[in-house]
Amino acid sequence: MLGAAVLTVTGQREALIANYKGILEYEDSFIRVQTKNCRIRISGARLAIDYYTNDEMKITGHIDAIQYES
Q: Which of 33, 53, 55, 52 is nearest to 42 (CA)?
């Protein structure tokens, strides 16, 4: 799908989200991101957004769960 979010996870330490629209919540235990079609919630410990651009962001830390919310 054109414009759909792309989530790439490397182990439990790193996640890249492409084609997101905005950051809804940002805590060290969870991060919620709005995409075109849904919300993505990443839960864990010591989570941090290493960088973000208009198109992509990198989240690092100990990732325990990834949930898609409609």
A: 33
